[in-house]
Each structure stands twice: as C-alpha cells, then as structure tokens.
Amino acid sequence: MSRKVMLMNKERKLGFGEGYSKFCHDYAAGTTILSGVVQVRGALKAQTVREALSIVQLRHPMLRAGFMDKEDDFDYFTFDEEPKTLPLTVMDRSGRDDWIDFHQKEYLTPFTDADDYLWRTTFLQNKEDESGEHELVASFHHSTSDGISLASFFKDFLYCCRCLADGENPDVKSLPITPSGEELLNLGTSWPAWIARNAVAAAFYLLEENKLYGYEEHAPLQLRRTRHVYHELDREYLPLLIALCKANGVTITALFSGVLMKACNEILGTEKGKSRQIAFTPFSLRKRFDPPLGNEHLGLYVGFVNTKYRVGPKNTVWDLAARFGEQLEKGIQRDIRMPGEFRKSLGRRFLTSFDKGLLKDVFQYGVGVTNIGAIDISARQGPFEITRIHFGTCRNWGDWLMLVHTSSLDGKLFFCSCYTEPLLGRDAAEKIMSRFVALLKGTVNESKLSAPTRDRADSRAWDNRGPAE
Q1: What is the pLDDT, as a whole number, of residue 196?
Q2: Which domains are delineated in the chain?
Q3: Which of 63, 158, 272, 468 has the fewest CB atoms inside 10 Å of its own CB, making it the most exposed?
Q4: How is the beta sheet containing 76-79 ordered, strand by strand?
Q5: Where are the beta strands (DSSP E) in 53-212?
Q6: Predicted TM-score of the model (pTM)
Q7: From residue 280, how far is each of 42, 166, 175, 420, 467 by CA, in Å?
Q8: What angle (nearest 5°) sits at the alpha carbon of residue 146, between those of residues 422 and 439?
Q9: Residue 322: which of 458, 151, 415 has the closest Cα?
Q10: What is the mean pLDDT of the chain?
C-alpha cells in the first residue's frame, strides 16, 4: 500500500451533528463516546495488531483527525497527512470476561486535549493461551464515527490482520476527507428557524406528559453514569426471524423495536399503569446523499426519527413492528433540516439546562434500536475466528431509557443495551433485556406451530438495512 495519503484539505468546520456531539462529550462527561469490542480466537500477535491498525489509520482521514480552536464560535477538525502516533495500548488479560469491565470503563473515560486523535484502542492479549481468545476494544469520539463506521473499522482491521498473518499485502486505498453530513445533504437551515421549530417541540414536551414511564430516580448530570448489559442470540434464530419479517412486511429493525417496546411495557408499564411509548430511532443518512456515501467512509452520518405509540396487553409484537415501520418511513421521507454549523455559544445557552429547572424532564425517555446487522462480519478471517462483537455508546444525558445496539457475526446476534444510572436501575435493565430476548425466541417458537397470518397489501420490500448510530 502506498504511504501517500490523499487529502482534499487539511481542516474543515464541524457540521451541526459533529459539533453537537462534541458539545455533549465536553459538557456531559464523555456522553456520545462510541465503543466496540471484537473477540478473536487464534494466534493473533500484538505486532500484527499494530501493523493492521497502522494501515487502517492511513486509510481513514478521521483516524488522523483532532480538534482545532480558532477562538471563534465554531469547532474545527484538523487532519494530519502522516500519523503522529498510533493510539494503541497492549495489555495482558487475566480472565475471559475482562473485556466487560474494560469496555464499560471506556464509556466513562472522556477524550482530552492530551490525546493526539479522537479514537483509541486497547489489545487485551491472552498470554496464557496465545492461540486462544483475545479482544480489541476500539473507542471513538462520536463526532468522528457512527455505528456503520465502527463496523467498517472492524472489517478493515480484521481484513488487514488476515492478510498480514497469511504473508499478503493488504489491498486498501486511502480515502479523501469527506464533508459533514449537513454539507452532503445540502439541507441546512438557519439557526433562528431551527430554534423556532424546536421551541415548539420543547413546549409540547413541557405541557404534555410525553415520556415513557419516567425515571426511577432523578439525578443531576454529574451523578449520571451510562451502564450496559450484554446478551446474545444463537444464529439459528436469525433466518427464522428474517422469514417472519418478510411474511409480515416489516424490517428486522422494526421487529426489534416492537419487541423492545413490548418488553418495556411488561416490565415497567404494568406496575405503573403506563401505556405511552416513544421510540427515538437513529438511521443512516448515507444513501440520501447525492451521490450516496459508501459505508467505507468513517464519520457521523445519522439522522433521528421520534415516533409515538400506546402499548397494551393486546398489542402483539407484529402490531407494534408494523406501526413502527410505517411511522419510521414517514419520518425518514420528511426533510431532515438542521443548521449547517454548530455555534458553541448557542449550545451553551440552550443545552446546559437539560438536567435542571423546567427542562429537566424534557427528554423523551423512550427506547431505541440501532441495527448494524446489515454489515454482518464473517466469523472466519483466515487463521482467525471471530467469536464476539459488541458496540454501544455513552448516554449520560439519559435521553434514552433503553438504547439497544445490535450487531452480528455470520447471523449470530449480539445485543449491547445502554441505560443511565440512577435514572434506571440495573435490575430493571436486566429484566427488560431478558424479556426482550425471551420475546424474540417466543416469536420464533410460536411460528413453528402456526405460520404468520398477517397479509399486508401495503408492505414494502423487506430489507435488513436498519438504522445505524
């Protein structure tokens, strides 16, 4: 691979989404950090990991990006043509589940001015069994990456590891710097118009109880901490779930969202007599750009759709999935208009009161599903076997009651669910996700007894391209 790195320019202003993510990170103790872990079985050496990451860093400009302060009201990225450092730490692990505690700590470790770049990796090597399982934990400032980006990063890394282990030269090309999502969409609007439109939405939340069930316990921002629970679903279930989704005219993301709403209602809503439900769903904007942006480009390219439901005992998961799909599609078809730039002064003025005063209960407290199952990673990578992949985000804001990140390895599903303590306790979070998995299994088991009967004439073609954070 050539060492020459192609650059369109060496700096650019952050777009609105990127600037918003930076503000949240700086103000709310690392909120929006994105982190993933991949577990590899085989004789993976630290030197191979280092060489593979060095190649991937040369490929992606965002892996050579930092923030630059021009003493004005905006934030800027600056890009190095040649990397100054490789943010890799190598550690010996002491047990098979060490990655869980380490992965959790990553969300609570903000990036600082001392960091050269806006990502970091740790290789947890298995010194006791060099042919056993090792983990690579990769964390990103959310302004530089989204869920699809994280999956693409791991695909590039594993491809390079496979080639290096086989004595081959990885065939990867350096990519140019991409504009912000707002520039690519060309749908930017003015700050006054954006504030006026969102002021109406804020007033709606203040005047009407529009939350899911409310927090178990309110807490100031400095006491909030994101936590995660991890679950898996054997690969025998995914083909059956896909077949059921096709028969019912919904996507797999719609099914996951319907099941999550049902699980939350059964665990929390029944006790409190609540039925109102909100889904706050991230989705990829990459195919909306002209021309479309490929998945190989790292960056933050997501939009969000807020949809509302009432959930009761008579609602089946297919009822909820169908309704979710209809509302999500309508939301995606609407213009997604945001300011083309994020002003720090307005961020401080409007966002620093979210956890106190009149605005402390404005957040939706809804649920969300981020699905990168469309980027299914092969479990066999040359001499290596990939045995686990999880990713998630830090949400110290508490803007999601439960946010489930899904990923897959040759059809085996992995769920990493984030919630915020003490706003929601671990016991409730564990019960919700255990019920979530049980409902998915039950849906498959019921289908073995009777085929789906829903005949939706208006169903769109099913696909597995879910939203991505």
Answers
A1: 63
A2: 11-181 (3.30.559.10), 206-338+357-374+396-449 (3.30.559.30)
A3: 272
A4: 11-13, 76-79, 65-68
A5: 65-68, 76-79, 88-92, 119-125, 133-140
A6: 0.88
A7: 39, 44, 32, 16, 11
A8: 60
A9: 458
A10: 83
